[in-house]
Amino acid sequence: MGGGSSKFKCGGMVVQTDQSFYYSGDQVTGSIYVQIDQAFPAKKLTLTIKGREKCEWREKKSRRDKDGHMEEYFEDHHNSNDIFKYEQDVYLFSGGLIPTGQYVFPFAFLLPQVCPSSIYFSGDDNAEATIKYSCSAKFKAEDHTPVADIKYKCPLIKREMTKTGSTNIEAKIKVKINKCCCCGSLGECE
User: Fold this and answer.
1) What is the pLDDT of residue 161?
2) What is the C-alpha separation between 121 and 53, in angstroms, rounded?
3) Which residues contact 31 (CB under 8 A, 6 or more apart)?
4) What's the CA gap between 18 and 33, in Å, rounded?
5) Strand extents, DSSP E, the chain
6) Burial 37-65 (b: 16+ CB within 10 A, else e)
7) 170: pLDDT confidence band, cut at 50, 70 and 90?
8) Res 78 pLDDT > 50
9) pLDDT given at position 142
């Protein structure tokens, strides 16, 4: 389950999912637990779910310098791509001020039907590839106030469904039945 906590000057927050992992198309459910120690200037609580893939690696290359000598150098490569992003307002506070207190905000959303599993790969030459998903919640402070946003982010683990194969294999068993050569009965004569 997603968990942990964050503590800010005005309070703290925890995001917790109900399961430790999910599959494509699953409904993700959980709760956002909030402790507000002093009134906080914000209008809403926002939940953001992201899926992102990243890779980076270093490639060793060679080239001729201006004198014609071969020299080696490294070329770094990196790329990233958003798989999906989902955002919803969980709760709107009237008056732009969140009163002191403890709150629990349940949430639910559907993972997309087709998205890759969470992965982490680390190889030679600083090669690294990741697919990460996260749930984050945030009270964005009003622009005219000096306080920091109250926010929290936890990992969301996405797994692949185990594939079960079906086979259409027929088993044919041949049984050889011996007939007695003298009387023609099955089996052996006495």
Assistant:
1) 79
2) 11
3) 15, 16, 18, 104, 105, 106, 107
4) 13
5) 6-8, 11-17, 22-23, 27-36, 44-64, 70-92, 101-110, 119-122, 128-139, 150-156, 158-159
6) eeebbbbebbbebbbebeeebeeeeeeee
7) low
8) yes
9) 72
Enter the pTM of the model: 0.70
Q: Which amino acid makes up residue 182?
A: C
Amino acid identity, residue 75? E
Tokens 């389950």 map to which residue? Answer: 1
The answer to whether residue 177 scores a pLDDT higher than 90 is: no
pLDDT at 3: 46
Q: Hey, what's the torsion of the CAs at 143, 52, 27, 165, to 10 degrees?
A: 180
* One-letter amino acid of 105: F
Q: What's the sign of the alpha-carbon dihedral 103, 104, 105, 111? A: positive
Measure Cα distances from 112 to 27, 36, 84, 117 in Å.
9, 33, 8, 12
Task: With H, G, I as helix, E, B as strand and everything else as coil, classify residue 150.
Answer: strand
- Smallest CA-to-CA distance from 21 within 128, 151, 136, 133 is with 133
51: its two tokens: 């899926």
Structure-block tokens of residue 40:
């906080």
- Closest C-alpha among 106, 139, 152, 141 to residue 7: 152
* Residues 64 and 152: beta-carbon distance below 8 Å: no
Q: Which two tokens stand for residue 190?
A: 């006495």
Question: Which tens digit of pLDDT belongs to each residue from 26-46?
Answer: 999 999 999 988 888 888 899
